[in-house]
Amino acid sequence: MTGIPVGGVDFIWSSADPDVTLEPYTLEVSPTSDINPATPPGWKQTYADFKLAKDFRKEYLGVRRKWTDSMALAVVDRYRRSRPHLFIGLDALVDDNDKVDPKNQAKKGVQKIVEALRRTFFVRIMAVRGPEHQDAFAATQSWLHMAGVEHDDLILLQKHEHKLYYLDEDSLLLDEVDNDFGTKLKAAGLHFVNSGDFDFKGGNWDEVLARTLNAFRRWPAGGMTKQSS
Fold first, then answer.
1. What's the pLDDT tens digit per position in 90-114?
2. DSSP-assigned letters across all residues of the chain
């Protein structure tokens, strides 16, 4: 289900104080494995006896919860790393970004284009929200939901320039980019698609999609690099 192989093997050494660099005896190899809690400090009896102790089930459930949490994080991390990251500024999506509320409309065709981009990218929405915005994360997330904009991550920033901290050479930014910010992006070796170059009233999102996808190509080794425009 997770795509992460988990197995188990039981080894023993013949010495009470073994040299683990030496080859052990293999008792069992299992294609699947569960995790068992460690015995309490100072436990002198067998593990089979520990399984019969009154605290075993509590310890067992506790370690299972930790294991489940770790596996869930591993699956999420695996997904995040499986595709290149596309950062989309909220300015590129909404007509009036100063105050995101149900009265402000998403630009024409934005839902379709972001849905298409998510087939290739891990889509992360960036929204600049200062202290004057009340409950900014919930309000922005709610607007994205009502606007039908599917995404993988939402990042709130206090300043427009803070977007630079999240970008790297293997990511791409789709945003309204002015000359000053564009100069900073180029100086840092970062690539972007300026949504301000397009007339959204005419619904030119297909052109944005084509330019965004064409900004990337895969190396044979699976790494990501940018194509020259």
1. 888 876 544 455 556 777 778 888 8
2. --S----EEEEE-SSSS--TTS--EEEEEESS----PPPPTT--S-HHHHHTSTTHHHHHHHHHHHHHHHHHHHHHHHHHHTS-EEEEEGGGTBS--SS-STTSPBPTTHHHHHHHHTTTSEEEEEEE--TTSTTHHHHHHHHHHHHT---SEEEEESSGGGGGGT--TTEEEEE---HHHHHHHHHTT-EEEEGGGS-GGGTTHHHHHHHHHHTEEE-TTS-EEEPP-
Among 115, 97, 119, 118, residue whose Cα is nearest residue 106:
97
Task: Answer whether 118's CB lies under 8 Å from 152's CB.
Answer: yes
Of 65 and 229, the structure prediction assigns the larger pLDDT to 65
Residue 42 burial class via C-beta count within 10 angstroms: exposed 0-12, middle 13-18, buried 19 and up: exposed
pLDDT, residue 156, reads 94
Among the listed residues 112, 116, 114, 123, the one whose alpha carbon sits nearest the alpha carbon of residue 83: 123
Tell me the per-residue pLDDT of 111-144, one tens digit each, with 9 for 90 and over.
888 888 888 889 999 999 877 777 889 989 988 9
